[in-house]
Amino acid sequence: GVEPSALGSGYDGAWSFESTTTAGNCPTLVPVNVVVQGGRVISANSGASSPWGYVESDGTFAAKFVDANGHVSRATGHFAGTSGAGAWSSGSDYCGGAWRAHRDAGGKAAR
Asked: 26-60: b or e for each residue (b if 16 or more CB lie within 10 Å)?
């Protein structure tokens, strides 16, 4: 496991993700919004996706998401400040791609 002290609470807040599929033929399975609290991923797609994940104090990000239909995706990458980027893949759907993210100002979803 990851020691709580290694988690990056400096990345807490609501993050908006934009992902693209670059391998395989499936819709992007990365949630469009993810909430980080205490360095852990606690919510994805407003509860529609079951998340497991964390952000380390150096910005290293790793997460797994399972949506309501049972599609599993894994995302890894790096956060710096209020943005992030990385790659995702789905073993259940044999596809993958890239993602970018930014933290919403003030922790509220920007519309």
From this structure: bebbbbbbbbbeebbbebbbeeebebebbbbeeeb
